[in-house]
Amino acid sequence: MNIGDVAALSGLPAKTIRYYEDIGLVKPLRSPNGYRAFRESDAHKLAFLGRARALGFSIEDCRNLLALYEDEDRASAEVKEIAEQHLERIDEKIAELREMRATLAHLVNACAGDHRPDCPILADLSTKTRDEERLEKTA
């Protein structure tokens, strides 16, 4: 199967497939003229990777999950550990996004949005953060 065929089967763009090959996640065969020759198992791996990436797993997590998937002697506890760690990162990101949204909502509500030049949004964006102030003091 060529890259176009495996792209259609896996739902991934050819560019992504080439990238996954470059970083060693898939290893298609090569014909004597250098063309990639994908097997059905490669298409399956690529679909697996596409689903894992859609869930936000990192490339390294995908590499580990794929290795565990291919290991028939795996312990499901290893898979669960990777998924639990990823779930924790998602929960942290959600908390950060909620905090970000609350801050921005407060600023939007504080801004009159009229013809006057004063704007609490710009005022807040122009103030230094505690981290920036600490950096200046140590410099």
UniProtKB/TrEMBL annotation:
KW Aminoacyl-tRNA synthetase (keyword) present: no
Name of the protein in its database record: Cu(I)-responsive transcriptional regulator
Molecular function in Gene Ontology: copper ion binding; DNA binding; DNA-binding transcription factor activity
Gene that specifies this protein: cueR
Stretches of the chain forming a coiled coil according to its record: 80-110
InterPro entries: CueR, DNA-bd_dom_put_sf, MerR-type_HTH_dom, MerR_fam, Tscrpt_reg_MerR_DNA-bd
Residues of the HTH merR-type domain: 1-68
Keyword NADP part of the UniProt annotation: no
Membrane-spanning intervals of the chain: none
